[in-house]
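User: quick one, sequence for these C-alpha cells?
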C-alpha cells in the first residue's frame, strides 16, 4: 500500500522558516505529479505548490518568492522550503501524489500542522 509520510511541521515566529518533507513508499515515486496543499482553519483546502513528473513547478500567488518546492526522486522525497512566514501561512499542510495511467491513483499524507505565531 502506498504511503506518504510527512515531517517538519511545528510552531514558528513570523518571518521565520520551516522545511517540510514527504517520503513516499511502495510507489514508483518519479512517475508521480507531486503537490503541497494546505488548509487553514475555516478555509477550503488549496493547492500551494506543484512539482510535476516532467519537472515543472508552479505556486499559488500568495507563496511565490517565499516557498520552494523540490523533489529528490532517488530518496523518494518531496520538500517544501518556506521562508518569510506570516500568520496567514498557518494551516495543515498535505503532501499529495497522483498519477493518471488508465485510472487515477491519488494519495495523501497525514498533514502536519504549521503554526506561525509570536
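Assistant:
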Amino acid at each position: 500500500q502506498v504511503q506518504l509520510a510527512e515531517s517538519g511541521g511545528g510552531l514558528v515566529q513570523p518571518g521565520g522558516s520551516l522545511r517540510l518533507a514527504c517520503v513516499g513508499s511502495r510507489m514508483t515515486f518519479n512517475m508521480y505529479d507531486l503537490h503541497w496543499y494546505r488548509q487553514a482553519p475555516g478555509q477550503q483546502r488549496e493547492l500551494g505548490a506543484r512539482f510535476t513528473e516532467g519537472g515543472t513547478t508552479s505556486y499559488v500567488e500568495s507563496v511565490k518568492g517565499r516557498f520552494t518546492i523540490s523533489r529528490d526522486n532517488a530518496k523518494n522525497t518531496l520538500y517544501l522550503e518556506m521562508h518569510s512566514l506570516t500568520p496567514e501561512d498557518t494551516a495543515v499542510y498535505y503532501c499529495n501524489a497522483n498519477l493518471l495511467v488508465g485510472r487515477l491513483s491519488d494519495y495523501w499524507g497525514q498533514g502536519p500542522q504549521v503554526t506561525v505565531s509570536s
